[in-house]
Structure formats: C-alpha cells, structure tokens
C-alpha cells in the first residue's frame, strides 16, 4: 500500500482501513439482497452463469474497485528475498543474473544506479531433457500478486507443467510498481531467456512464454525485444486475457472507454491507472499538466506518435507499451516475424476490444494466431478456480492441443 497524494485521501494509511472496512461491510450487507434479486429473476443473469458466478463477479468488482481506489497492492512479495526451502513443495528457487550490460541493446541499453542485478525464479522440473520450456508471467496490473508456487495465479504454471509437455516451467518474479520500472521487468524476463539459450543451450523454438493480463502485456514486449534486438523467435506465445492497450485512459486517449463495465469484475480508477502508466511503464515523471498526464511528448497525440523509444523512456504509444492503440494500426513490422500465438479471452471482459484488435493485427502481419473465445467469460477465467469448470476445461484442452504443435 502506497500513499499517493496525487490520487487522493483514500490512499492515506490512516484512511485506508476505515474505507476498506466500510466497503466490505457494504458488500456483506448487499450479498443477500443480490442473492434474492438474481435468485428470483434469472433473466438478469447470463445463460451460462449460475447464481454463484453472478454473485462472485459482483463481489470481485466491488473489491477490485476498492483496491484501485485505495492504491492498495495485494499478495506481493519482496523480489529481493529468497524463500525458505521449507516453503516450497513443487518448485526450486533460483536466482538468475541480469543479462550483461554489453548484451543490453535497444531500449534496454540504459544505465542507472540500482541495487538489483538478478531476478528470482520458481522452477518446476521434470528431470527429462526434451520437452518444452515454459516462462510464465503472472497478472496483476504490475501492482499485485507474485510468482511464488503458493500464489493464486500459480495454478497456471502448475497446470501447464502437469500436461507432461514441459521439461521445465519458470515462474518469473519480475519487477512490479514500487521496485523499479517496466524496462526492469522486461530485462528480468529477457535475462531468464538469455540464460536458457546462452548458458543452458535451450533452442529458442522450445521456449513458450505464457502471460495472463499484465503478464500477457509483458510477454508481447519480450517477444518484440527478442525479435528486434536478438533476432530470436520463440516457439510460442500463450496469452490469457492480455492487456495490450494501456494508452486507454491516458490524456491523449481520454475519449475512449473500455466495454463491459457491467459484466466484468475489472473496475478501473482512471487516474490511478494513468499514473501507473506514466511513472512505471513509460518512466515519465516530467508531467506538466498534473499527475497522470506525462511529459509533453506523452500529452499530445501527434507528439506521442513522433516520440522515439529511448533507453529508459518509452512513448505511451510505443508498440512495447500499447500495441493495440488505434495509432499503431499502420505501424511498420508491428507483429511481423512474431512467434505463433494462442490467445484466450472472455466475450464479457473489459479488454475484449483491444484483444481482438491484437489478434487481427497479428493475423494481418502473418502470425499463426489461434483464438479461444469463452463467449460468456470474464477477464482471465483460468485464475478463477470457482468459475464454470466445463468452460475452463474446454480452454485448457484447446491450449494443450495447440502446445502439442509447438
């Protein structure tokens, strides 16, 4: 939890517990009312949604709105700490050194004083030599969650490993807000892949990068960097409800709204999100029109388009940040030579438009892109362990079929 006076009093440490207690008490008071309302009138529920699913989404949306409003981070861990061996049942923990400076080209050719020079990974190992090697990147908007095997999102790497298709699966403890910047997170993941290729002799065609939500956003940036700077094409990208247009909500895109606010559990506090984009993702703290506005090059749409990505600072409209932004429709080599890709998403989620734009542009640029649409699904359904099991099972079956072709 971080107090940010630019966002408002709700983030003050003295106010947060009171505000959260009030909001949680409201949810508890409303639950029986919602239960009666939706229980007696199924017409207000989606066809495949049970009463329990409907109530779950109502509660999650309220909780998400509360977390956004208070600028609270949940279920994170100190990325510089090593877990005790007694904590780990299925994985081993390993530090991987950051890629040497002489190998950091392009947007990663930045030098700054930092205590960090390595990234932690939780690794599932089968002991066999062949098979795919997975890199999994959890979601959480670069604010929440972690890579530990006991984290809520660890059911994804666990499920992938249980398929028997992988010799190793790495869950990467990449950099979050408060511990660095987006380019640090990019360097974290690229360093893991460089270690696999350079030190362990893994062929890039065996490496599959999986990311859900913000992890999907980071996965796209990793594939772009490897293509542009290393000439490396991975075996595949597995994107689960990827966040692919963070420019929405930034001043230059103020006119655009995400759909499905009444059906998805994602609730956006626009100023909070704009500040996250400004200060973490594009590393821009030279705002001239108030918090969340960015520098002059990020405030004006034309200027943002003309702003070149530089080491340590990216344009909000950079393909690294917002590949699905309207302004990138005609960008050169947007997805040319990207790895084959599988995209899973829900028809009732907030990110549906930008995900479908992503897929359309990938296919236009010649990417072998397979889509899986859960028509009445919400955001990132594979982390919702209490969601319709038949729907989740169908998604996983489609994923495993695709992985067998990698």
TrEMBL record:
Residues 136-254 form the Alpha/beta hydrolase fold-3 domain. Keywords: Hydrolase. SUPFAM superfamilies: alpha/beta-Hydrolases (SSF53474). Gene3D superfamilies: alpha/beta hydrolase. GO terms for molecular function: hydrolase activity. Transmembrane segments: none annotated. PANTHER family: AB HYDROLASE SUPERFAMILY PROTEIN C4A8.06C, ALPHA_BETA HYDROLASE FOLD-3 DOMAIN-CONTAINING PROTEIN-RELATED. This is Alpha/beta hydrolase fold-3 domain-containing protein. It comes from Wallemia hederae. The lineage of its organism: Eukaryota, Fungi, Dikarya, Basidiomycota, Wallemiomycotina.
